[in-house]
Specification:
signal-anchor; glycosidase; Glycosyltransferase; golgi apparatus; three-stranded antiparallel β-sheet; single chain; 18 helices; globular; mainly alpha
Length: 504
């Protein structure tokens, strides 16, 4: 129908009146909004969904020659220009029949034979040196050895047994409610009973599931462990356009997956851990190799927290990658993971450290310290913990890690550890040479850390370090106990004020 012809106009006018003539103005407006929304959705789907470029090129801009060849089953020979449809169809038929025969033979094999074939193929790849560059879906064969003593032991002491049962009961309660109200989300908000996903993980889901895998296994909650494993296998996906915290994703997801693999031996955990590790590698693409704090998993573009001292990386974040990345190299056969974290040590060794202390901020571009703020609590804490544990994890062969830890501890003792007028030992914070006499909640881990390392330090320091660890633990205990006393005091005062008000 010609749009400019009178008959064409009359035709569309009749259609319009038939469809919309009976509607009020507001109804027409609402209908117009619905249509415009539908059109916007269609264009959005075409231009902004993943692989939209393929959709556009394949649907709207396909050349007529390619379309014709696809329909007829021919492919143009660029050298001769002649069609070879019969040869191509014969080859396709032959390949298809061969694939069917191979699949049939494979399916007829027993499962243990299939597993043996896969393992031998992987072993051949390792021998040929192809395993080093392998991706997560083609990992080298690793002989799994189940760690002794993780499960299967009941304490003899009835008091310990009762406490253990109570802790497991609490875990069961927490897990059941997470599964009921927030399954797949990163966290459960207990008051509103809704799932919550922190922006630390972007659109990455399942932090609670992955983080709880080792606890479920150790507590012998095997049904829950299998359900969590199934979720990981079916739903844990890292292929997304999302900005995540490298530190948080490493300790929660990579660490959780590695722990689950070492406890259970399930290959899915090793594969997922290495896959995620590969996604995190672009964070190290800085002039110094000190990683960015934030990373887009799709683009590989990194940046630091805007508030972190002129775009600096944070000691507790880039210093808390060592354990997981060393294991990623061991399980993947790829040395690149270990090289990245060992380079962090090299950078720190080259830098001058004020009073032997490690400031919390380091610029990844210039390789210079940011603000001279030192804290064993927030922003610094787990860096020191990982130095000690790296040495212990190496069966005490990592002499560099050992030296870095004990040198740092000596500097902390000399410059930061003080005693209050009431006799409580605490670890102060250091700001450009001036002490700030406070110790935050996160510093309380230091008591356990110092006790853990007391055995391997200088012989004359063992007893001293155990005493120091006990004093710091006592300070933390007193902080909580006295906070409770103050709360009770304020409650009593408030109660008396209310009583006076009601009497008046």
């Amino acid at each position: 129908v010609g749009l400019r012809s009178r008959s064409g106009i009359n035709f569309f006018q009749r259609i319009y009146r038939l469809l919309f003539g009976h509607l009020e103005l507001t109804e027409k407006f609402i209908l117009l909004l619905v249509f415009s929304g539908f059109i916007t959705l269609c264009f959005g789907a075409i231009f902004f969904l993943p692989d939209s470029s393929k959709l556009l090129s394949g649907v709207f801009f396909r050349s007529s020659s390619v379309e014709a060849e696809t329909r007829t089953g021919t492919v143009s020979d660029t050298s001769t220009g002649t069609g070879k449809d019969e040869k191509i169809l014969a080859k396709i038929r032959k390949d298809h029949e061969k694939a069917l025969i191979e699949a049939k033979d494979t399916l007829q094999k027993r499962p243990n034979e299939i597993k043996q074939d896969i393992n031998s193929d992987k072993a051949k790849l390792v021998q040929n040196g192809q395993g080093k560059g392998a991706k997560a879906d083609s990992l080298p064969f690793v002989q799994y050895v189940r760690p002794p003593g993780a499960t299967g032991h009941e304490p003899a002491d009835p008091d310990v047994k009762a406490k253990r049962a109570k802790i497991k009961e609490m875990m069961q309660f927490s897990w059941d409610n997470y599964k009921r109200y927030a399954w797949g989300s990163n966290e459960l908000r207990p008051v509103s009973k809704q799932g919550h996903s922190s922006n630390l993980f972007g659109s990455l889901k399942g932090a609670t599931i992955v983080d709880a895998l080792d606890t479920l296994y150790i507590m012998e909650m095997y049904d829950e462990f299998e359900a969590a494993t199934e979720w990981v296998e079916m739903n844990l996906d890292f292929n997304m356009n999302a900005e995540i915290s490298v530190f948080e994703v490493n300790i929660r997801f990579v660490g959780g997956l590695l722990s689950a693999y070492y406890l259970s031996g399930k290959e899915v955990f090793r594969r997922k851990a290495v896959e995620l590790g590969e996604k995190l590698l672009p964070a190290f693409k800085t002039p110094t190799g000190i990683p960015w704090a934030l990373l887009n998993l799709k683009s590989g573009i990194g940046r630091n927290w805007p508030w972190a001292s002129g775009g600096s990386s944070i000691l507790a974040e880039y210093g808390t990658l060592h354990l997981e990345f060393m294991h990623l190299s061991e399980l993947s056969g790829r040395p690149v993971f270990a090289e990245k974290v060992m380079n962090i040590r090299k950078v720190l060794n080259r830098l001058d450290k004020p009073q032997g202390l490690y400031p919390n901020y380091l610029n990844p571009n210039s390789g210079q310290w940011g603000q001279h703020h030192v804290s064993v609590g927030g922003l610094g804490d787990s860096f020191y913990e990982y130095l000690l544990k790296a040495w212990l994890m190496s069966d005490k062969t990592d002499e560099e890690g050992k030296k870095l830890y004990y040198d740092a501890l000596q500097a902390i003792e000399k410059n930061l550890i003080r005693k209050s007028s009431g006799g409580l030992t605490y670890i102060a914070e250091w700001k450009g040479g001036l002490l700030e006499h406070k110790m935050g909640h996160l510093t309380c881990f230091a008591g356990g850390m110092i006790a853990l390392g007391a055995d391997g330090g200088p012989d004359d320091k063992t007893g001293h370090q155990m005493e120091l660890a006990a004093e710091i633990a006592r300070t933390c205990h007193e902080s909580y106990a006295r906070t409770s006393e103050w709360e009770n005091c304020f409650e009593n005062v408030e109660r008396k004020i209310l009583n006076i008000s009601s009497n008046k």
